[in-house]
């Protein structure tokens, strides 16, 4: 039974790993479409999202079967429930990458509004958060999960700066820029939301590995029953 | 064992029901704060969100214990995993209600931009979706769940109209309206996102009750193993 669990769980982990790589690729293609004004790149995002959706259903199905057939408890139970949640986050990230492609393809139909250095930098940070959050889960690395949590503030700061510049320098000054500036604002917001899902994964990782609940920055539910101190 | 499961599961259901009511209330207070320009209402949203967060942790904890102690299979397993997912959706809805309050309290610091009839109508529809999605789950009512799915298009249509009016009649014409119009746009978007979470709950309900997977509008995983035709 134990070996069956390990083998099947390893297969599910591998699939989740691939989903994470696909999310990173989808973000990359969406940003390439935007900065290189290349609509073919957006089509690749839609294709990738389809494959993420398929894997999402498969992973969910496999986790349900694993729970039913193996009735895992303690750490293994937390692992499977953790994967079910992470799977949902990855699927939403795929949806958000499609939003990026949607706003990006609308944006490039009009003349460029401004040089785009800030959004690609923000996107790189978000891709890093996706990778590190998945790695933290797959390696059971709580330290790395905490790094992901700390990066989220940086991403928020980036988004606010992008937002502020577009409102103050463009939208408030010249009404003809509103639609394009709004597309860029929505792209920044969707990137931020992908980062939020990476944060969820990092929080789930900390819970799965240490049994410590850092969600809502408060309560601890260690598996032993005795509450632990939290970093924040 | 069976009776223990039923009793504990009933308690978890009751808690999830309360969470849904709290989400509806939070939306109501956020909109009251916006339309009546009443900042105290926003504070109530923050308080409600705190209580939703606490219930979120409790429900998650209880579901994990239920899986560990009772090892449910088949329909009961789908129910518990369904609750785990719905619990996440409800918690996010609470976050989004806080976003509504955040944008609303910023909006009312400036003079009113326009009469607000459209956002309260949209909010009422979203509250209805929240209630019906929860009811569909709690009653195991697939028909009601499908009603929720159909309402989502109406909410999207509303959001697009609100968006369009604010861009075309205000932001593009008068730069001094940009910040306020943007707040209203973000409120519409956050309402839409709450509706998306209600849609998730409705889809999970259909899966839990019928074993039919309507997510991604495609694959069916009936519990019997034989694929079924889907409505869409």
**What is the end-to-end distance of chain A?**
39 Å
- CATH class of chain A equals Mainly Alpha
Rg of chain A, rounded, reads: 20 Å
By secondary-structure content and strand pairing, the structural class of chain A works out as mainly alpha
Enter the CATH topology name of chain A: Methane Monooxygenase Hydroxylase, Chain G, domain 1
Order of helices and strands of chain A: HHHHHH
Strand proportion of chain A, as a percent range, falls in under 5%
CATH homology superfamily of chain A: Phosphate transport system protein phou homolog 2, domain 2
Taking the sheet with the most strands of chain A, its summary is:
none
| Tally of DSSP β-strands of chain A | 0
Oligomeric state of shown chains: homodimer
In which range does the helix fraction of chain A lie? over 70%
- Poorly predicted segments of chain A: 219-232
Give the helix tally of chain A.
6
Q: What is the CATH architecture term of chain A?
A: Up-down Bundle
Shape of chain A: elongated
What does the model show?
The structure is a homodimer of 232-residue chains. Chain A has a single domain, classed as Phosphate transport system protein phou homolog 2, domain 2 (Methane Monooxygenase Hydroxylase, Chain G, domain 1), CATH 1.20.58.220. In chain A, helix 3 runs antiparallel to helix 6. Chain A is built from 6 helices and no strands. Helix content of chain A is 80%, strand content 0%. By secondary structure, chain A is mainly alpha-helical. The radius of gyration of chain A is 20 Å and the shape is elongated. At the A-B interface, helix 2, helix 3 and helix 6 of A face helix 2, helix 3 and helix 6 of B.
């Amino acid at each position: 039974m134990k070996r069956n669990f390990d083998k099947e769980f390893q297969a599910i982990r591998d699939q989740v790993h691939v989903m994470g790589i696909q999310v990173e690729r989808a973000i990359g293609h969406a940003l390439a479409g935007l900065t290189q004004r290349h609509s073919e790149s957006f089509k690749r995002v839609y294709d990738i999202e389809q494959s993420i959706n398929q894997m999402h259903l498969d992973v969910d199905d496999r986790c349900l079967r694993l729970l039913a057939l193996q009735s895992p408890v303690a750490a293994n139970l937390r692992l499977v429930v953790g994967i079910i949640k992470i799977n949902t986050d990855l699927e939403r990230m795929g949806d958000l990458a499609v939003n990026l492609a949607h706003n990006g393809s609308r944006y490039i139909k009009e003349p460029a509004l401004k040089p785009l250095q800030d959004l690609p930098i923000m996107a790189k940070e978000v891709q890093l958060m996706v990778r590190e959050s998945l790695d933290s889960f797959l390696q059971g690395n709580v330290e790395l999960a905490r790094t992901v949590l700390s990066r989220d503030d940086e991403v928020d700061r980036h988004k606010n700066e992008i937002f502020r510049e577009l409102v103050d320098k463009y939208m408030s000054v010249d009404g003809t820029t509103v639609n394009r500036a709004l597309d860029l604002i929505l792209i920044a917001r969707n990137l931020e939301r992908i980062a939020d899902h990476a944060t969820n994964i990092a929080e789930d990782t900390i819970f799965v590995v240490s049994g410590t609940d850092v969600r809502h920055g408060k309560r601890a539910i260690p598996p032993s029953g005795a509450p632990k101190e939290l970093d924040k």
